[in-house]
Specification:
binds hypoxanthine; single chain; 9 strands; five-stranded mixed β-barrel
């Protein structure tokens, strides 16, 4: 497995003059963030050894490396999900590859259903913690000790300091940003109203089908992680409407401006405070 990660990383390295310090995972409808990245090199997943192409509409499937405020970032535009039938090892392969390229920070985004009744479509929410109800953990199997420990700590998986910085940035730009616990489910069917009621009782504010495997892999790698969800719909049973992926994408695209500001300005602050450097 380590050989596969190294082989993906070596291919990417051969295309770059600067290694990324920040990784970004762009979820459904948020792929247009790549427009914010300057001097970019686009590497289709198809060209990268051991990268899988996503089958979901709205996920384009390319690694984009370029600059945000002069900092080299690598954005995974399009991700694969456990419900597509890929093994967990494949799901986390791109994040592990970015880890191998030397990123220190990982920003993840996703489209989520709002369980908390104070959340509305279009809201942006920083994830403070998660509940993994996929029934799977991507670290099951032989531990690759070169990547991280057998039993990684998850108590600060969504880095508190980074979350506080994101909230400061959002406040400074008058962007309404909420906080919540994300519950990941396997999908691909959306949840039933009874399941949503159960998830609320368990303490979940958001529900979705991604992010958690990558966050576990990132915690294993020792990366500082932040995740911002875009609430694209009320979770099942909260309103009378039916859920569909087209609406999910449209709402996420509308929330893009606030999201882009939060992400780019946070990167700028990390640079200003010396946590990452130019290029
Ligand atoms: N449930 C699960 N995943 C989702 C949802 C939802 O309501 N909205 C966007 N992704």
């Amino acid at each position: 497995m380590l050989e596969k990660i190294k082989s993906s990383a070596d291919y990417i390295k051969s295309k770059l003059s600067h290694m990324p310090q920040v990784g970004i995972v762009l979820g459904s409808g948020l792929g247009i963030y790549v427009d914010e990245i300057k001097n970019k090199i686009i590497i289709p997943y198809d060209d990268i050894p051991f990268f899988k192409k996503t089958s979901v509409e709205g996920h384009s499937g390319a690694l984009i490396v370029g600059e945000v405020y002069g900092v080299t970032v690598a954005a995974l535009s399009g991700r694969i999900h456990p419900y597509e039938g890929y093994p967990m090892e494949e799901i986390i392969h791109p994040v592990r590859t970015l880890g191998c390229l030397g990123i220190k920070f990982l920003f993840l985004t996703n489209a989520s259903g709002g369980i908390n009744t104070h959340f509305h479509p279009g809201d942006l929410v920083t994830i403070s913690d998660h509940i993994n109800l996929t029934g799977k953990n991507p670290l099951v199997g032989h531990n690759i000790s070169e990547l991280g420990p057998r039993f990684p700590d998850m108590s600060n998986a969504y880095d508190k300091e980074l979350r506080e910085l994101i909230h400061e940035v959002a406040g400074h730009h008058q962007i309404n940003l909420k906080t919540g616990v994300y519950c990941s489910v396997l999908g691909p069917s959306y949840e039933t109203p009874a399941e949503i009621k159960m998830l609320r009782t368990l303490g979940a504010d958001l529900v979705g089908m991604s992010t958690v495997p990558e966050v576990i892999a990132a915690a294993h790698l020792g990366l500082k992680v932040a995740a911002v969800a875009c609430v694209t719909n009320y979770a099942a049973g909260i309103k009378e409407e039916k859920l569909n992926h087209g609406d999910v994408k449209k709402v996420a695209e509308k929330a893009m401006i606030g999201f882009a500001t939060i992400l780019s300005e946070t990167i700028s602050e990390l640079k200003r405070t010396g946590k990452i450097h130019e290029k």
